[in-house]
Amino acid sequence: MTARPDAAIRALRVAAYRIPTDAPEADGTFAWNATTLVVVELDAAGETGLGYTYADASLVRLIDGHFREQVEGADAFAIGQLNERLWASVRNLGRSGLAACAISAIDSALWDLKARLLDLPLARLLDARRERIAVYGSGGFTSYDDARLREQLGSWVHDGDCRWVKMKIGADAGRDAERVRAAREAIGEDAGLFIDANGAHTPRSAIAFAHHVAEQQVGWFEEPVSSDDLAGLREVREALGASGQAMDVAAGEYAYTPDDFRRFAEYRAVDVLQADLTRCGGVTGFLQAAALCEAFHLDLSAHCAPALHLHACCAAPRFRHQEWFHDHVRLETMLFDGAPSLKNGEIVPDLTRPGHGLRLRAADAQRYAI
Length: 370
Ligand SMILES: [Mg+2]
What we know:
This protein has helices at residues 58-71, 79-89, 98-117, 122-125, 146-158, 173-187, 203-212, 230-242, 258-266, 282-296, 306-315, 326-335, 362-366; strands at 11-26, 31-44, 47-54, 133-139, 164-168, 192-196, 218-222, 248-251, 272-275, 299-302, 319-325, 336-337, 346-347, 359-360. It is α/β, with parallel strands linked by helices and 370 residues long. Strand 5, helix 6 (173-187) and strand 6 (192-196) form a beta-alpha-beta unit. Bound molecules: magnesium ion.
């Protein structure tokens, strides 16, 4: 094992792929029938690092036009230094949203590249605290009929041994209580049941709904109201706590910067903070969020993109679980060699491979290229 002294980044490649879902998918505030994946690859000293984000294909132009010249020629071992330049360079574009997604994909590729250059699995390079992580099955789209809802959630518990599952609510308030009851029946008494409204409720209607489904032992209410409404999240959280409901309020999937995470924590808006490394600055940003969780005594849950989160989650303090999101699991299994598979409710990094171990199957991906 020899670290290459000359590890200037020689090339950046970026491409977008649009992959149709296996059925129409919807939540409380949005509907979609395809998912766009933007992949970044970086070459240095004979190795290639891979990162990606789930965003819009316009990111290809942003990365090609804005970020390429800063990344090419930079030292692959100086990730922090390059990150400072990348974040500083988007001051006038706005750090959040697409700029953060682009930096996230680049940062993940940088960490994969560095680990490969050192011939280490990424979890080892990041000083892993655990060798496996628990996942919760996540889907239960509002576009599903009850039979599909029961079948999907039930199979995560009964076949995948997941300890928890999550369903979407908020599209049809009249039907939601019955959907939650059907989900509880499908997964049995012992598994944890999570609901995610994607911001569909007002504080008042969220609190009323939580009381309405109290019998179903819901353990987690994600984005009961918009994540932009920190006061509303806190109101829901305090009301549930005051009434003795053991239901955690969770949010954080739209946090892009450390300041976004800090505001959730300072405002006491959530019981569990979620972070998504395809949005919040890659591996670097995810571990910054985890450190902030430690300082505020909050647990951390990883949002979506399980294949790319796995090694970073092994290293994160106060880590609770990773989302095993139906749409991304399907896509990552189709397009990446080395994508993890679910066993005993957990996923395990392959410590025999350097980096995060993922490789794009270019020939399989090509038919989805846009
Ligand atoms: Mg969510």
